[in-house]
Specification:
350 residues, mainly alpha, 2 domains, three-stranded antiparallel sheet, 3 strands, elongated
């Protein structure tokens, strides 16, 4: 009897291999696994487990006569991403009482995007004003065009400033929630109070330093270098944008016409920098949450270092006695030919 068998992936029946391996089980038409020794240990088999439908009992349970309760069909709230560090999504419930600025926190993405758009419009308005000033050097500007330019510059600047304040409040609420969740995951409490976070993020000049510090305290815990790199890039642009805005405000206090014209151009550059800061802030928020700039979930790439030599998990199939090729007839024929050749040589010698 052959010692090489093929197990069925559906019914578990083991079929002896007498010739070429089969593909389908004669009993249940299930898929037959690769041939292997009947007494091979588990580490030398090329099959480990069989996936079954929920509620289907395995063969050992039916043999023992013990029943199991049918299992429910797995359901996911999102596409599952398997990995060593993935954790099941917990159901949202009444975890905590409503937090301050929670209403604005839900609109942080829309507020940041609207801020970037309004500052872009303000920059275009300032550039249009600068082009009118260049044209005014040789020609007079019509009063309606001048009035439209003033209205556009003032309206865009006003709405951009209001939306920037709303975005700052929404981003502050988001920062409070992210810090609370990050420290709660480690079993600790945020050492900085919401009042301290608000003072560090909303007070001018002081907010050039502390927001980056607050973010840097929570992003290293993610185990991914991208959030920390995004925070550092945002921090540099945030400081440069703040310094540029202060320079544009002080430049407007000049008395000469040329200085005022340069102040218009500098204000346009400051508005462009503010729009870039809003986009980078949205990028940081998305990156810390594990998403890209468009809000799509980012798949994690986990690399495993393989330093040991690979061990074969499949035991080679040894052919049975029927498959053994014998070379005895060939050897006998060769001996007879050698004997005849020696006899012929002896006859010639005589």
């Amino acid at each position: 009897m052959s010692t090489v068998v093929q197990p069925c992936a559906r019914c578990g029946t083991r079929w002896a291999v007498q010739g070429p391996p089969m593909h389908w089980c004669p009993r249940c038409r299930g898929v037959l696994l690769s041939p292997g020794p009947i007494d091979a240990p588990p580490q030398h088999r090329n099959y480990r487990w069989v996936a079954r439908r929920p509620g289907r009992l395995d063969r050992s349970a039916r043999t023992a006569g013990t029943g199991r309760a049918p299992l429910a069909t797995p359901r996911y709230t999102e596409i599952p991403r398997w990995g060593l560090q993935d954790r099941p999504v917990t159901a949202a419930g009444d975890r905590d009482r409503p937090r301050p600025l929670s209403a604005l926190t839900r609109w942080v993405y829309t507020a940041l995007l609207a801020t970037a758009v309004l500052f872009g419009i303000a920059a275009l308005a300032e550039l249009g004003r600068y082009l009118l000033l260049l044209r005014n050097r040789t020609r007079l500007i019509e009063p309606p065009l001048l009035w439209f330019s003033d209205a556009l510059v003032n309206t865009a600047a006003l709405f951009a400033l209001i939306m920037a304040l709303v975005s700052a409040a929404a981003a502050l609420g988001w920062l409070i929630e992210v810090r609370r969740a990050a420290f709660a995951a480690d079993g600790r409490q945020d050492p900085r109070s919401p009042r301290l976070l608000a003072l560090g993020c909303l007070i001018p000049v002081v907010n050039l330093v502390w927001p980056g510090v607050f973010l840097s305290e929570v992003v290293p815990g993610h185990g991914d270098p991208r959030p920390l790199r995004a925070v550092r890039i945002w921090w540099v642009v945030w400081v440069l944008g703040g310094l540029l805005s202060m320079a544009a405000l002080f430049w407007r206090t000049a008395d000469s016409l040329q200085a005022k014209a340069d102040g218009v151009l500098l204000t346009a550059i400051a508005d462009i920098a503010a729009a870039a800061v809003a986009v980078l802030t949205l990028w940081v928020v998305r990156t810390v949450e594990g998403r890209d700039l468009r809000g799509r979930h980012r798949l994690a790439h986990r690399w495993v270092v393989a330093v040991d030599p690979a061990k074969p998990l499949i035991e080679p199939v040894h052919p049975g006695p029927a498959a053994t090729v014998s070379t005895a007839p060939d050897a006998a024929a060769a001996d007879s030919r050698d004997g005849a050749r020696r006899a012929a040589q002896e006859v010639v010698a005589q």
